[in-house]
Amino acid sequence: MKNLVILGGGYGGMRILQRLLPGQLPEDVTITLVDRNPYHCLKTEYYALAAGTISDHHIRMAFPEHPRLKIVYGEIVSVNTEEKQVILKDKEPLNYDDLVIGLGCEDKYHNVPGADTYTYSIQTMHKSRKTYQALNNLGEGATVAIVGAGLSGVELASELIESRSDLNIKLFDRGAHILSAYPERLSKYVESWFTKHDVEIVNNSNITRVEPNLLYNHDEAIPCDVIVWTAGIQPSRVIREMDIEKDRQGRAVLTPQHFIPGSDSVFVVGDCASLPHAPSAQLAEGQAEQIVQVLLKKWANEPLPESFPVIKLKGVMGSLGKKHGFGLVADRAITGRVARLLKSGILWMYKYHNG
Question: What does pTM read for this prediction?
Answer without folding.
Answer: 0.94
